Amino acid sequence: MNCPGHILIYRDKLRSYRELPVRLGELGTVYRYERSGVMHGLLRVRGFTQDDAHIFCTPDQIEDEIVSCLEFAIDVLKTFGFDEYEAELSTWDGGKSGKYDGAPELWQLGENALKRAAERLKLKVTLMPDEAAFYGPKIDMKLLDALGRKWQLSTIQFDFNLPAKFGLEYVAEDGRKHQPLMVHRALYGSVERFFGILLEHYAGAFPVWLAPVQAVVMPITDRQLDYARGVHARLEQAGLRSHLDDRKEKVNLKIREAQIQKVPYMLVIGDREAQSGSVSVRHRKHGDLGAKPVDEFVKEVCKLVESKAVSENGLTT
Fold it and tell me: What is the pLDDT of residues 220-269, one digit of tens each?
């Protein structure tokens, strides 16, 4: 866990209320001994990376901080094309079981702040009584993938335990020392799991802005090789991830292999394209899109990349 490291950074000096909120984050590698029978590809592993962040703030700041965290989480999900998601608010049992840490007034403060933040964003939340962690209430964002499966990714978690255990303090306006509120925040959760979910959600056919290779340049013969190199260089100059397939193979084989690898665009170059300064564009789903001037193709793909379009629409013809 990364929490103690961030706590020690906070505790390195006495903080004033004027410095709060203090927000610390990192991509930290953590480990968990999962039994061999439950490990599952990228979705459940023994070593993984968390986009872990911790917020230290005053009670007056907590609601706005939670709203910002929820907005951040929702923006991340929507950017990657996850439009279906649910939020769950996990609360305690009112102290009946004795299994939860923290004073009742802290639990009430935390749960009310989470509820009000969700209401401000008009976020539908399912209440999960007696499902909180022993150290505080939380909101979990659970997305539905292309197969309708539910995955927990983003989480916003209060912690009443660690600030007390580590003796965290800040000097308030009244000149006295108070204990700050602490919130754990993760957006992807496990980066490996998030990537595994992305792979399955898109069945490997990433939208063009996410695709590892966005276009493959394919000269039909060696006569077009110099022109193909220029097209490849033009794509890279525009910031696109291009690959030049200059193997002495039939172009149909090159197209087939690019289709299997689910590359969004294949740019076939023959004598006619080399003479006219164009490329023959093929899309992995829509097939032949016809010939286009190189600069026009670059402009249209860059527009798709900049807008982070997630649809499978081809370029305009």
Answer: 999 999 999 999 999 999 999 999 999 999 999 999 999 999 999 999 99
**What pTM did the predictor assign?**
0.84
Catalytic entry in 6, 15, 51, 54: 54
What is the model's pLDDT at position 315? 61
E strands, the chain, in order: 15-16, 22-31, 47-57, 85-90, 125-128, 138-144, 150-159, 170-171, 177-178, 181-190, 215-219, 242-244, 265-269, 278-283, 287-293
Catalytic, 50? Answer yes
CATH for 215-307? 3.40.50.800
Which CATH homologous superfamily contains domain 3-201?
A: Bira Bifunctional Protein; Domain 2 (3.30.930.10)
Q: Return the pLDDT at 200.
A: 87
